Amino acid sequence: RAKESGRNRFQFFTPEMQHRLDARVTLEQGLMRALQRDEFVLHYQPQVNIRTGKVIGMEALLRWESPELGLVPPMEFIPVAEESNLIIAIGNWVMEKVCATMREWLNTGVPVVPVAINVAASQFSVQDLEKQVRDVLERYRIHPHLIELELTESLSMDNPEGTIELMYRLKDIGVAMSIDDFGTGYSNLSYLKRFPVDKLKIDKSFTSGLTRDPEDRSIVTAVIRLAHSLGLRAIAEGVETAGQLELLAREGCDELQGYFFSKPLPEAKAIQFLRDGVSMGFVNVPDAIP
Ligand code: C2E
Ligand code: MG
Ligand code: MG
Ligand code: MG
Question: Under a CB-based contact definition with an 8 Å cutoff, are residues 154 and 121 in contact?
C-alpha cells in the first residue's frame, strides 16, 4: 500500500472511497428507477391536539419499497437525493401524490384532515416552488388549508430576503407552514421572528430525553414558551410515553406526534384510522371542505 502510494503520489482515491462512491452511484440509479417504476409510497402519522385529544392532521412520510432492498427508510436515501438534486423530482412526486390521494379520499367519502408535507432545503431554494404548489392544488382541487409545509431550519440562508419572500408567497396561497426539527439547526432567531410560520416542531431528540434529562426538559419548555410568545403553536415529535405526554401537557405544548399515539400508517391503515376516528369521535373533519 505504502509502496503503491509512493509510486503514484496523486492518487486521491482509496479503495474505500471508491467503494462508497460506487454505493452512492448505485443508490442514485436505484432512486431514479424507483421514480420510473413507481416504488415510492407514503405513510401517514397522526398529529394530535394535546388538550382535546383529537387528531388535527397527519404528516406524510416517504418510504421506498425497493424490490431488491426491501422497505428503505428516508434517512437512508433523502441525504443522497439531496446531494444529487434528485430531491426535486422526488419532492414533486410527494406533493403530487399527497394531493392525488386527498382528492381520492374526498371523492370516496374518506374523512380528510390536513396533511403536512416535508420540504427539503434544496426544494425551497427553487424559485418556482410557489407556482408548483399553486398548480398542484388547483389541478386536484385541494383547499390550501388542507396542506402544511414542513420546512427545516437548515433552509438556505445565503439569500434570507429571498427565502422570506418565498415564504410569504406560499403563505398567500393559504397553506400552513412549520419549522421541522426545531432546535437542531442553526436557529437565527432574528429570522424566525420574520418567518410567516404557524408552528414549531420540537425535535424528537429533545422529546426523548424529556423525563430523564433536565436539560432536554429545559429546552422543550423554552421552545414552547418561544413559540407562544411569537404567536405560534408548538408540536412535539417522537412522543413515546405517557410520562412525556404528561410533561408536555403541563408545559402547555399544543400538539403531539409519536408512537405513543400512533406509528406512521400505510395508506389503507390511515384510511381505516380516519374512518374509525370519525365514528369514535377522535377525528374532527374541518368544516367547509369542498
Ligand atoms: P421528520 O420530518 O422529523 O419526521 C419524523 C420522523 O420521526 C419520522 O421518521 C417518523 O417515523 C419518526 N417518528 C415519529 N414518531 C416517533 C416516535 O415516537 N419515536 C421515534 N423513534 N420516531 C418517531 P421517518 O419516517 O423515518 O422520516 C425521517 C426523516 O426523513 C423525516 O424526519 C424527514 O426529515 C425525512 N423525510 C420523510 N419523508 C420525506 C419527504 O417526503 N420529503 C423530504 N424532503 N424528507 C422526508
Ligand atoms: Mg417532518
Ligand atoms: Mg421533524
Ligand atoms: Mg425530526
Answer: yes
Could you tell me the distance, in angstroms and rounded to a whole number, from the CA of residue 220 to the centre of ligand 4? 14
ipTM of the complex: 0.98
Q: Which atom of ligand 1 is nearest to the CA of 61?
A: 38
For the stretch 212-238, pLDDT in tens is 999 999 999 999 999 999 999 999 999
Ligand whose nearest atom lies closest to the CA of 119: 1
Predicted TM-score (pTM) of this structure:
0.93
Which of the pair, 19 or 135, is modelled with greater confidence?
A: 135
Q: Does any ligand 1 atom lie closer than 6 A to the CB of residue 50? A: no
